[in-house]
Amino acid sequence: MWRVALTVAIALLAGCSGLFSAGSTADGGDPVTPAPVPTSSPDATVTVPTSNGTVDVGRLLDRHQQALSTRSFHRHVEQAGPQNTLDVWVDREREVQRVRRRFGPISDDVILANGTVYTNVRDDPDTPYATTPATPNTSLVTSTAGSNLLRQLLSNTEYRQVDSVQWNGRPVAVLAATETVETPIGENESEIGRSRLYVDRQGVIRYVEHTERRPDRPDIDTTMTVTTDIERVPIPWWLAESDPYSSGSM
To answer: For the residues of 140-159, what is the DSSP string, one character each?
Structure first.
């Protein structure tokens, strides 16, 4: 039987393509997240923290983390195509979390609810999931808000605010990479292709697209979308009989 793992290996999608054991679920696939198509509007005015004329990335990530610390949300990350994805759902009100990682047909799925960690089991047809007691500090990822991933992607890049627009009905600031901060890797350096962020007035980084060419390591092609104030965490088929939202479970 696949052994339950509560490690942070689920958390960092960028640069990791084989973190989990083989298997698949019948939970259904997610549609590919389309790139945002902003519409200019004079009413869309959003400011972001800056320092010396460029975006203060550290403060930007702190605001993003803080803005999501009390809100329910769904974070969806794709790397090099929709079959390499990470989904994180957080229901603050009912204290339910779910983390699902997919790489092609390989999938891992973990849910935290009712003081228990439920992990999908695929190598035993008679046992759909395994359980482990949770502790007050149990978390399924290092950063549910994705701050660690964003710090990896953005740390060597300078950004400037290039626009304030309406996107999906809300004002957002559009941040674009200026130039890569020179951080030699041996004799080679990474080159940013396209890197843009869409940040709302509350500080939530709603959308990220980041491409990076790295001569001596795999290239990066990553997008991240954050949807806030979700009503509930979707419960997969393998936990349907113990649905934490069902009557009497919570």
So the answer is: SSS-TT-HHHHHHHHTTEEE
